[in-house]
Amino acid sequence: MKTSTIETLVWVLIYGGLLGVALGLAVQRYLEPLGWGISLAGGLVAACGVVLIYVRSRMKGSP
After folding, report:
1. Is 27 within 8 Å of 42 (Cβ atoms)?
2. In tens digits, what is the pLDDT along the chain, a chain of 63 residues?
3. How far apart are the first and last CA of the chain?
4. Which pLDDT does position 19 carry in this prediction?
5. Which of 31, 59, 40 is CA-nearest to residue 9?
6. HSE on the CB side for 51, CA within 13 Å?
7. Residue 35: which of 45, 48, 22, 47 has the closest Cα?
8. C-alpha span between 16 and 22 (Å, rounded)
9. Residue 33 in 3-state DSSP?
10. Residues whose CB is less than 8 angstroms from the CB of residue 5 and which lie 6 or more positions away in sequence, other chains included
11. Quick check: 24 and 46 in contact, CB under 8 A?
12. Which residues neighbour 51 within 8 Å (Cβ) at sequence distance 6 or greater?
């Protein structure tokens, strides 16, 4: 996989995950279990983005 592809995917996952967390917190006021589920899923997506930052740092290739 190209480094530019991973860099783009990192930012999409991090910002998308944080947006999911914010949406989950907003939904939590009305439907608590659904809000927690959305927040959890968003947190996992953001965590995947953080893991990809580590993967990208270990890749050999041009920065």
Report:
1. no
2. 888 899 999 999 999 999 999 999 999 999 999 999 999 999 999 999 999 999 999 988 755
3. 14
4. 98
5. 59
6. 7
7. 22
8. 10
9. helix
10. none
11. no
12. none
The pLDDT value recorded for residue 18 is 97
From the number of C-beta atoms within 10 Å of its C-beta (0-12, 13-18, 19+), residue 33 rates as exposed
Tokens of 14: 């991090």
For 53, the token pair is 């930052």
Cβ-contact 15, 27 below 8 angstroms: no
pTM score: 0.86
Q: What is the DSSP string of 42-57?
A: HHHHHHHHHHHHHHHH
